[in-house]
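sorry to bug you again but im stuck and you know this stuff better than me. what follows is a protein written twice so to speak, once as letters and once as structure tokens for the fold. mainly i need to know what kind of three dimensional shape the backbone takes. anything you notice is useful, everything is just below:
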Amino acid sequence: MVQAMDRQIGRVLQALDANGLSGNTIVIFTSDNGGECFSDTWPLTGIKKELLEGGLRVPACSAGQIAFAPAGSASR
């Protein structure tokens, strides 16, 4: 599954590059947290809605150029 996700996210990033959109686009991929109640989350403990490791770890990745405004500045 990780290889398939990597391949497909790569296709999205390549399409953004090919269309000149990667310079002003941030791509964020994330997943819901934890396995459902019948999931095997071993070696972690916990499931969705629990504050244990198996319910809190969330895979995520992001790509893009992020610029932050200088401290104390404002925009409208």
Q: What stands out?
A: The first strand starts at residue 27 and ends at 30. The helical segments are 2-18, 53-56. The chain has a mean pLDDT of 78. The CA atoms of residues 8 and 14 lie 10 Å apart.
